[in-house]
Amino acid sequence: MSQPFLLGVLGGMGPLATVDFMYKLLAATPAADDQQQIPVVAWNVPQIADRQKALAGLGPSPLPQLLQGIHRLNEAGASHIAIPCNTAHHWYGALREASTAPLLHIVEATLEKLQTAPARPEHVGIIATQGTLDAGWFQQGLTRLGITPVLPTADEMQNWFVPGCYAVKRGAPAEGGALLLRQAQALCARGAGALILACTEVPVALQAIGAPALPQTFDPAVALAERCSQLWQAYRQAAFS
Amino acid sequence: MSQPFLLGVLGGMGPLATVDFMYKLLAATPAADDQQQIPVVAWNVPQIADRQKALAGLGPSPLPQLLQGIHRLNEAGASHIAIPCNTAHHWYGALREASTAPLLHIVEATLEKLQTAPARPEHVGIIATQGTLDAGWFQQGLTRLGITPVLPTADEMQNWFVPGCYAVKRGAPAEGGALLLRQAQALCARGAGALILACTEVPVALQAIGAPALPQTFDPAVALAERCSQLWQAYRQAAFS
């Protein structure tokens, strides 16, 4: 209790997904007034080298700009840091080492939520960047839980996921939603009884089109927001008791 | 061009209105990708003494916490600072003096937008806190433009505005929306042909209920976001030309 609670958000990937995450933080926190809400400092600076291109070997690494964000958030007094971008967790180790404040992990938060879900289907689809899919975090986590992952095909990635994701980034979330819905439906057609929306642009896009009938979805941004909020609520309770 | 552009947002008043403002910043900025979006550092720390109570003489001043936010944003490298809370502009002078980065003014941005609106009705209603109404900023601005302000009555403030505003602050924006809609309709019934939603909780609340038929509305949060975005777009153009 030496340092006051202050959640640092390393955002900008993309900026709209960061705002969506900040909204989810508030939605996850019961509060009777402004003062009970979770205190946040957000670094929503999107001038970061493209993560998908970097991981495909087609562009510079975003690590220097990510480290700058981590430093600024620590300087601002962050007691914990969350990164509302799945793909950026590729650099999680380097960022954790550079940070005084502990970094939460979006995949861990999501898998924990999946593990405690009342009903778990046998097959779960993963909608994510190629970088996140290549890392294998979600596939390994599902396999540990005895769940079979259902993945996008190369054609689906090229025709639906990638353009859908970049549509959100250029401020056309509904356009992205139409493409990402087709991606979601394709995974369901191949047997997925639930979906992990493992790129923070995806829930933004699906929400923009009113997300018609999908099976159970797990939103890593919500799982991460809930974990952050639980830390704040525990701190608040301890501080006021 | 010595300092890179970075918008500091002094938020938390309330936290949901700040997230709404951050969304409006993105909506105001044409961008082809993440990297063209406006870079923002947001201090969304709502542990600030209640502004309405302070101005009514019923609670401590929020100035120390506001100054702390201003200092943190300057330390984080903010080149400009915006405050998405009308009432907090009561302390604008003290905050401006304490800040290296220039502070934009939400009332100025709104009045400028009103001045250049294609159609201006003769009577414009103001939905705002008692503190903002007592300051007279919007009334004076309207009068200068030859427009007659239409104000809430004491009963309306007590029954609709105040509980509507605090409903948003405790995470019940739809409940707030129902009350604030009645406030809006009362002003229209007394002749207002347009409304200034001069408390940043109000547009959040009205949006939560799908805001049924209202006349032209001026949203100071949008006006401020547009002004911030124009500064960023001018900087971006100069930096890349």
TrEMBL record, chains A, B:
SUPFAM superfamilies assigned: Aspartate/glutamate racemase (SSF53681)
UniProt cross-references to InterPro entries, sorted A to Z: Asp/Glu/hydantoin_racemase, Asp/Glu_race, Asp_race
GO molecular function, one term: amino-acid racemase activity
Any Pfam family: Asp_Glu_race
Keywords annotated in UniProt: Isomerase
Family assignment from sequence similarity: Belongs to the aspartate/glutamate racemases family.
PANTHER family: ASPARTATE-GLUTAMATE RACEMASE FAMILY, GLUTAMATE RACEMASE
Protein's UniProt name: Aspartate racemase
The organism's taxonomic lineage, starting at the top: Bacteria, Pseudomonadati, Pseudomonadota, Gammaproteobacteria, Enterobacterales
